[in-house]
Amino acid sequence: MKSTLLSHIDSPTDLRKLDLSQLPQLAKELREFIIDIVSVKEGHLGASLGVVELTIALHYVFDTPNDLLVWDVGHQAYGHKILTERRKKFNTNRQLGGISGFPRRSESVYDTFGVGHSSTSISAALGMAIASQLKGENKHHIAVIGDASIVSGMAFEGLNHAGVTDANLLIILNDNAIGIDPSVGALKNYLTAVKEGKNPKQNNIIKSLNIDYSGPIDGHDIDGLIKELERLKKVKGPKFLHIVTTKGKGLQQAEDDQVKYHAPGKFDAATGEIHKKSEENLPPKFQDVFGLTLVELAKDNPKIIGITPAMPSGSSMKFMMEAFPKRAIDVGIAEQHAVTLSAGMATQGMVVFCNIYSTFLQRAYDQVIHDVALQNLPVIFCLDRAGLVGEDGATHHGVFDLAYLRCIPNMLIYAPKDEAELQNILYTASLGLKNPIAIRYPRGRGKNVDWKFPADFQKIEIGKSKKLKKGKNVAILSTGTIADNVTQALNGIEDEGHFAHYHFGFVKPLDEKKLHKICDKFSTIITVEDGVTTGGFGSAVLEFAAKNDYVNEIFLCGVPDYFIEHGTVDELQQFCNIDVDGLRSLFSGLLEEEEQDED
């Protein structure tokens, strides 16, 4: 791509040297730059294309980084990164050792707040604004939030507080009627009415909260944006600017299919066509196993309900929504509401499958404890994207769930080792449980090419483990799909029956009867999990051993006690030494030690 303006811009200082008339050309070049790199390197495309003009206008009008700019979620921050000293290394975006796909404080002074989960921007920017007041600083504080994110409870909490302050805060609503999936709910309908001019001015939610409101204005009119931002710089107190944008702006396919082009994978930068990947003879995605199984179960059980907070496509709840639209509910970005809504339904005898990404359930932790577990309501939590998820990095890895759920009374926790076990635990839960259960499974595909659907369902006995391989000296205990790494690692070792391998699908309750036998028979035990070892499955085994006065040598393999960055799942498993080669090296080393001891 030939660039005449963007190639000379390394920082917002360079940007502000341009004439206003040059900015539309810069916007064109910035879009092309994003498209060229994301088409090859992958990433979040549509959101960043939709805010190109806004990004330029913000850095042109405000004195960043002295003025503090907070992006909500961060999917839309690629243009921001490129204009703030990271253009030359943007091709490393989301790759191991490269820049993060989200704003990150340690990466740049222009990234004023680390983000990844939604709806934090208003609270963070308000906190900055109040701090600036207390320090006597004259700064502007800007929060950019989408219409899908602003429905979240935390965003409303921030608005509620902002309205009773005189903080120098500007909230910009980027209204494109879509998050990852289309926005839902009454507020979405309200904003649509505002955009269409059907809502009377006196019935304005934002003004009612004592926040100065302006808009809606065209978010792709760079001249109009700059004029309005310059005006708002002079307005005291909290302000709210409503702009209307098109997600995927500038790439026709991304505008036409905004869900698919949120993060489309590799595509042709010139045509926009996504490079097709053959799905012949491939095992199914775990999310599809969940979605299709749920539909199959719902056919025979009218009490089954599906709930998801804004992830119908990502979780494959879309299949249930298509088959039984009244029994599948997308509540929007509202994880706390999703959990307590599920609890309310469970009190009335409904069989509720609440599907939330593992990392997002963290946002509803009190509701899991207080509204579900304390009342022992049998809500079925289906935790998609458990374990290391790859390029989205530290904010999205589902590595904490075993640790944060294991300590909750009444909670059952199950991690299937493959697609068949996922189907069977969903079936088992649908028959009725006396406790809530969390079922965790990873992003990506399983291993069984001959996956059978509809399934020949088999009920799983609660709290029972499985022996996968006989052995006489060392016991390897794994939970979840990481069992496949263990199996592959063992297949590459001539151990003559040295290693036994057990699959503990239930992390809670543990199969203590089997653990007693294991601890009595094997002097060395290795636990393997794709979650944090601090408080996770391995910790549970250590606790059992300590409580029962066992003195076995126990090694814990899993995610170490620090935040894991972005990279492919294979790269990150290798970093944590839970990939096939890392485990094989560990097992081989133990085998050599034992042989030397025998000599």
UniProtKB/TrEMBL annotation:
Gene Ontology terms for molecular function: 1-deoxy-D-xylulose-5-phosphate synthase activity
InterPro entries assigned to the protein according to its UniProt record, in alphabetical order: Dxylulose-5-P_synthase, THDP-binding, Transketo_C/PFOR_II, Transketolase-like_Pyr-bd, Transketolase_BS, Transketolase_C
EC number: 2.2.1.7
Catalytic activity: D-glyceraldehyde 3-phosphate + pyruvate + H(+) = 1-deoxy-D-xylulose 5-phosphate + CO2
EC top class named in words: transferase
Swiss-Prot/TrEMBL keywords: Isoprene biosynthesis, Magnesium, Metal-binding, Thiamine biosynthesis, Thiamine pyrophosphate, Transferase
The protein's annotated pathway: Metabolic intermediate biosynthesis; 1-deoxy-D-xylulose 5-phosphate biosynthesis; 1-deoxy-D-xylulose 5-phosphate from D-glyceraldehyde 3-phosphate and pyruvate: step 1/1
Pfam family, one: Transket_pyr
Domain of life: Bacteria
Manner of cofactor binding, per the entry note: Binds 1 thiamine pyrophosphate per subunit.
Transmembrane among keywords: no
Residues binding Mg(2+): 147, 176
Keyword Magnesium: yes
Known cofactor(s): thiamine diphosphate; Mg(2+)
Similarity comment text for this entry: Belongs to the transketolase family. DXPS subfamily.
NCBIfam families on file: PRK05444.2-2 (NF003933)
Subunit organization: Homodimer.
Functional note: Catalyzes the acyloin condensation reaction between C atoms 2 and 3 of pyruvate and glyceraldehyde 3-phosphate to yield 1-deoxy-D-xylulose-5-phosphate (DXP).
HAMAP family: DXP_synth (MF_00315)
Protein name as catalogued: 1-deoxy-D-xylulose-5-phosphate synthase
